[in-house]
Design a protein that fits this description.
Oligomer: single chain
Distance between the termini: 45 Å
Structural class: mainly beta
CATH topology of the largest domain: Pectate Lyase C-like
Number of helices: 3
């Protein structure tokens, strides 16, 4: 990708090309200027040169002056009877689509001069830009443009990627080590701030969507695995086997050390994500090793994540691996595995969320306990979950901990006729012990069940004590869908009609 840089004039001296025309000079003054082409063409953001110009004056050189479109750029002192120097010019954004007129004037001691004119044609600004290298310096992806991920692209430590509202990011199709993804490494930052009228969209190269559109014009929302996903990694604590401080995130080959996450900074800041929709991801890099739509590994509480949507991901919608980050207003639709998945003692809050199961969704919620000795507790609250007669409410396992409150479940099948699908279960002695001592707590669960299904059938292991049956649409708890209006594909396609 070529950057639209600001004016770069290198003056060990002069700007030059290959040949030129001379005017306004005295016939016998002996002043010449060669090496400047009459015309040249570059792409938007491209560069002319460096080229070499040569000035001569029998009476002795004094200066070279340069103007662009009649405005003085510089005056360079010269001496002797001959001087050569390089010149280069990098087009700035305002140059796109224009013909720029440069004038070069050489003057000698007697006041004689020669003037050479160069016309530089700058192409129109590119609107589709392919990214093939890691982002190692502060970079902005500009509104109105589409950026193509040509591989696994990492924002490295010390760099910040700013994504303006309305930008579309498309991952090329790939799997295994060639899976495309955008990774925010530990120490790197993302500032992706869409708006309710102009969200940022991550999708596949197969998607014909353009900036300004919400719904895909050619893809259905259940297609998955066409690229990787968005992975944010931080320095906040995690709880993993062996109590090591850092670990390689799933979905990224071990050979790529930009995939490491975890640390000791609970307040770590990986940036801001607002009004972002992530679609058709989850490429498989190995057996049982897919990329989540949004992966949060060791992300700290200094990070802001609000108004995020994941659609048609082959693996989980959103998965937390430890960390302390809070997430507000999240929606997952058509996850291929779990809607919301928590691991490794994540210690934050998910507030106001919706899960809409797809034909392949396993659990709406999969809640795992800590893997090491470090304990943590997170909160999921104000959520509405639609099973579409496919998914389980949730599986709480391996010493799951946390608080789950104000959740509404509907559209689930009768567990007695679907091999246990359509229920909420606690798995393993550690999980049951945490439920008994209050480390795992349920409050204000509401459900609209299939006909004839009892609370105890749906909410296992005593969790039915916190649940209430309500008529369809009569729920008093759950998500507020207004948070997703206008900007989410789920909302504009009518998928939220059954939600309050």
């Amino acid at each position: 990708m070529k950057k639209l840089n600001y004016l770069l004039l290198m003056f060990s001296a002069i700007v030059i090309g290959l040949s030129g025309c001379q005017e306004d000079a005295k016939p016998d003054n002996g002043v010449t200027l060669s090496g400047i082409p009459a015309t040249a063409t570059i792409e938007a953001g491209g560069k002319l040169g460096p080229v070499t110009a040569t000035a001569t004056a029998l009476d002795g050189l004094v200066s070279l002056s340069i103007t662009k479109d009649g405005v003085a750029l510089a005056t360079v002192p010269l001496s002797g009877t001959t001087a050569s120097a390089p010149f280069e010019y990098t087009a700035i954004p305002a140059d796109a689509g224009k013909n720029l007129v440069f004038e070069f004037t050489v003057t000698d001691i007697d006041g004689d001069f020669v003037k050479v004119t160069h016309v530089l044609t700058v192409g129109a600004e590119a609107t589709v830009i392919r990214v093939t290298s890691n982002i190692t310096a502060n970079t902005t992806w500009a509104k109105g443009k589409t950026y193509i991920l040509g591989g696994r692209i990492t924002v490295t430590s010390g760099a910040t990627l700013i994504i303006q509202d309305g930008v579309v990011i498309k991952g090329e199709v790939g799997s295994g080590s060639n899976a495309t993804a955008l990774i925010i490494a530990r120490g790197g930052k993302i500032t992706a701030e869409g708006t309710a009228s102009s969200p940022i969209i991550f999708t596949t190269i197969a998607d014909e969507i353009t900036p300004g559109q919400i719904a895909s014009p050619n893809l259905t929302p259940n297609l998955n695995g066409l690229w990787g996903g968005l992975i944010v990694l931080g320095k906040a604590p995690i709880s993993v086997a062996g109590d090591v401080a850092e670990k390689q995130i799933e979905g990224i080959p071990p050979s790529d050390t930009n995939g490491l996450y975890g640390g000791t900074d609970a307040a770590d800041n990986s940036g801001t994500i607002k009004f972002v929709s992530i679609r058709h991801g989850g490429a498989n890099i190995g057996e049982g090793n897919e990329i989540n739509g949004l992966t949060l590994g060791g992300v700290g509480s200094g990070t802001i994540i609000e108004n995020v949507e994941v659609i048609g991901n082959q693996d989980d919608g959103i998965e937390w691996f430890g960390g302390t980050v809070n997430v507000k207003n999240a929606i997952v639709w058509n996850a291929g595995d779990d809607g919301m998945d928590t691991d490794q003692a994540w210690s934050g809050t998910l507030d106001n969320f919706i899960v809409i199961a797809g034909t392949e969704t396993d659990h709406a919620l999969e809640i795992d306990g800590p893997e090491g000795s470090k304990l943590g507790s997170h909160t999921l609250k104000n959520g509405s979950i639609k099973g579409n007669n496919v998914a389980e409410f949730g599986d709480f396992r391996d010493g799951a901990r946390g608080t789950f409150e104000n959740l509404y479940f509907f559209g689930f099948a009768d567990p007695s006729t679907t091999s246990g699908r359509g229920d909420l279960s606690l798995s393993g002695d550690k999980t049951l012990a945490n439920f008994a001592d209050g480390s795992l707590k349920f409050t204000k669960l509401e459900v609209t069940p299939a006909a004839g299904v009892t609370l105890a059938t749906m909410f296992r292991n005593g969790t039915d004590a916190s649940a209430t049956i309500v008529a369809a649409g009569a729920n008093t708890v759950g998500a507020t869908k207004a948070a997703f209006a206008t900007w989410s594909w789920a909302a504009v396609s009518g998928q939220l009609a059954d939600f309050k």
